[in-house]
Amino acid sequence: MKLARLISYLILLLITYTLGYLFASSSTTTSPCSCSSSSPSISPSITQITSLPNQLDHFRVTTRCADRPVEQELVRQTILDRVYNSTSPYDGFPPPHVRGLLRAKRIKGWGSYGAVFDHLVRRVRPRTIIEVGTFLGASAIHMANLTRQLGLRTQILCVDDFRGWPGFQDKFRDIKMVNGDVLLLQQFMQNVVAMNLTDSVLPVPFSSGSVLEKFCEWGILGDLIEIDAGHDFFSAWADINRAYRILRPGGVLFGHDYFTAAADRGVYRAINLFARFHGLKITVDGQHWVIDSS
Ligand SMILES: C[S@@+](CC[C@H](N)C(=O)[O-])C[C@H]1O[C@@H](n2cnc3c(N)ncnc32)[C@H](O)[C@@H]1O
């Protein structure tokens, strides 16, 4: 009797195990693993999931945006008040302890002088530009010069943590470090001072995620927003989604390195997926992707 009960128990265990195994292996054929191939195309499993409108809610990045945007002429003062205790970061710059460590001008960028900047500044005639990823300011300074040539009163907000990336000093040994604090922000500011652009270019030195959330909350919108910070899929995806929330209606969102192979084509995959979600059209201008909301 005992033996019969033990055998039936073992049979039941075997059936349960086999069924579990069969269900698990059949579900892996549609799991997101199939979308991690090196191909940049969007796998059917992702589009299936996201074609359900209520699933898109999981991709929200913030729910706390201002009801009303800050007026264009108040954008600079709003940043000074909110970020710099109502003072200018350029007052008394450079401070004595870094003065001897900065170069008079040290500008280096990537694709920072592409024709896309001229095209977009002429077309949009932006009052507020938000740049996400500034480094030493090559592209920001270029845009500031373009707006100045057109006689525009544009503010350029440069969102960057000004930490570069781990190991960036291997290639930028001349950017000094003080007690582990790399002087990227200070060298950027020195470049802006050297170019006489302090009235139109303002650093916002925090991580892109936190700044873009705050901009939304404060009502800071951009007519032109450039994305050029982290190039892996998740960084680009987060920056693009957050930036789109603060794009002024009719404005243009654009970004560098559409074609780079860096981070397994992270930027390419992120912007393509984003455009597909929102039914937006991507155009390509040189090395940049462009989304025009007008
Ligand atoms: C490619 S560089 C920007 C180059 C600049 N647009 C140009 O053309 O001159 C990327 C910059 O993004 C910044 N960055 C990367 N990830 C960031 C993040 N999550 N938050 C803020 N800045 C970030 C780095 O510090 C770096 O300065």
UniProtKB/TrEMBL annotation:
Q: Which domain of life is it from?
A: Eukaryota
Question: Entry's SUPFAM superfamilies?
Answer: S-adenosyl-L-methionine-dependent methyltransferases
What UniProt keywords apply to this chain's record, in alphabetical order? Signal
Q: Which residues form the signal peptide?
A: 1-20
| Presence of keyword Ribosomal protein | no
Query: Is Signal found in the keyword set?
Result: yes
Q: Which InterPro entries match?
A: SAM-dependent_MTases_sf
PANTHER family in alphabetical order: S-ADENOSYL-L-METHIONINE-DEPENDENT METHYLTRANSFERASES SUPERFAMILY PROTEIN
What name is this protein filed under? S-adenosyl-L-methionine-dependent methyltransferase
